[in-house]
Amino acid sequence: MVVGTAVDGLTGVQRALELRPDVITMDVEMPRMDGVHAVREIMRTVPTPIVMLSTLTRAGAETTIQALEAGAVDCVAKPSGLSHELAGVEARLTQAIQRAKETRVLPRRTQLTPLPTLRSGRDDRGRVERHAKHVLIIGSSTGGPPALSTLIPRLPANLDAGIIVVQHMPAGFTDALARRLDSFSALRVSEAKDGDIVATGHVLVAPGDYHLEVTAERRVRIHQSATRHGVRPAIDLTLESVAPVYGQNTTVAILTGMGKDGAAGAAMIEQAGGKVFVQDEATCVVYGMPRVTRELTRRARELPIDKMADALAAVIGIAR
């Protein structure tokens, strides 16, 4: 049931205070107060699950990522106006609202923020990438962008591993997520492309609506086979491909998210001798994937998201 509407961001904040809805849907582009500032204000005054609606333009996607960092829990791409797209957006929005109702919104005082680094201090010119001997797989879903924005910038530039991020996110937004992470990280971050090598010091983000696998040659394969757990990309599929290639030289971090994706794959990595970390319940928007991962593994280490980078670096080591 719709309990209220607002014509702009400022009115939206006021209506949220008055009506205290279960879930808010919000456009990224609004007059008087844009979506990012409206999300921040709502999170400060009356924390509420928010689903963002956004165009798939570069600017729209980048603003959506900032809104997710500010506390929004999900995003849905707005249709261009074609009839078949209009029919599909209703179902996607309904699903996003249902997911949002199950999230736990962290009050602003406990929200975690990125740790910026001096982007100008990193020079990628003439960089020669080398195949990584160790791989770190980071899996996340609902609440993932702010968790990633806390974790990735804290990883050291000389981490001795290739890093793959599998974030459940619609097509069109993961490139903006990668650019955003790259802008304040010591590590290089980019959206993965078919044939990319798993390189030391390089973070590859699985593209939305594509599975990502690692081949025996330690390269990335991108494809659109059937969804797993109802999602694409699926963390389990990535981990299943990594296990026979990297074995004990694999570290897994399962972050906030709904469902069980990544749990079975993490157990497989643990059986191969790799290490498993999970985000703790207190800092999760949804303590689903980490909980199931703990249940299916024997030695998963649970940590708050702001403590995880140091622990991962200690296990993986530094490139010499």
Task: Set out the fold topology.
Elements: H1 9-19, E1 24-27, H2 35-45, E2 50-54, H3 58-70, E3 74-77, H4 83-101, E4 135-140, H5 144-151, E5 162-167, H6 174-183, E6 188-191, E7 202-205, E8 211-214, E9 220-223, H7 235-246, E10 250-254, H8 263-271, E11 275-279, H9 289-296, E12 301-303, H10 305-316
Count of extended strands? 12
- Look at the structure and name the CATH superfamily of the largest domain: Methylesterase CheB, C-terminal domain
How many structural domains does the protein architecture include? 2
What fold name goes in the CATH topology slot of the largest domain? Answer: Rossmann fold
The dominant shape is globular
How much β-strand is present in the residues?
A: 15-25%
Strand/helix succession: HEHEHEHEHEHEEEEHEHEHEH
Structural class: alpha/beta
How are strands sequenced across the largest beta sheet?
6-7-5-4-10-11-12
Radius of gyration, in angstroms, nearest whole number: 19 Å
CATH arch. level architecture of the largest domain: 3-Layer(aba) Sandwich
Largest sheet: 7 strands, parallel
Return the CATH class of the largest domain: Alpha Beta
